[in-house]
# Entry
Amino acid sequence: MNLIAPTATVQVPDWVAYPDRDWVQITPAEAGLDARKFAAWLDSLDVRGASFGGEDHSGDQYGAVLTRGGYLVHAWGDRHYRHQTASVGKALTWVALGAAVDDGLLDPDEPIHQTWTGAGQLSHEHKYLDCGHHQKLTWRHLIGRRDESLHWGGFPFEIGNRWREQRTGLEERDAVPGIPTWATWTGDPFYDCYAHAEPGTQGLYSSAGFWRLGQALTYVWGRDLKDVVQERLFDAIGIPYERWDWLAGGAVKEQKYLYPTIPDAYTYLDPPYEIGGQVVR
# Structure
């Protein structure tokens, strides 16, 4: 089953332009907007850098833009500012998976262990993908359902401080007290980075599942996944290799204070950090 929608022909309006390496800036009036109303709308906004996990985006340590028809109309902060985009990396993993399906390298509904078990590479035997609940774990289980931002491999919420706080939920507003009854855990999120429940029965927002997916896909491709995504996506839309990066898991693991108030945010990034001589993203 193809995970990528088929290409469709779309009629592009005459007023749409495609930028070169940089964007041409035009005025609101040139963009067909009422300049006075646009200015009033801007005054009503409070655009600033996010502060998730204690990040410092004061001054111009952030960037946001408003475009219309391929032209830059307005910018906030430093529009050339480059910052880590966190879970956007999961979308890149989707691309690598979809391309593998298109190339016939795997079947998304087959158990992952038929392709890669992680034996001798993952840190503990109970993490091997041919053990426990993993025996039924498919590629599709890890990427989740189309109508939700969850994956259903049963990996519990893995950020270390969430274990200590005895709650799940990505942010405070999403907090749910307690540990799920299906999670038989030791309190060590590194050790407990595995499927605690039968795949397809339980799900939580999880980065650990996508990390395991990245490891398996690195084995499947035998290449750096950044190169795969560059060829299959970014080359097609004109984004050069040097304009973006996808941090390797081992490098992120060393960034203990990437989120200052969540110093153990990446506990789940367990080895291997290289497979077949290729870094895992």
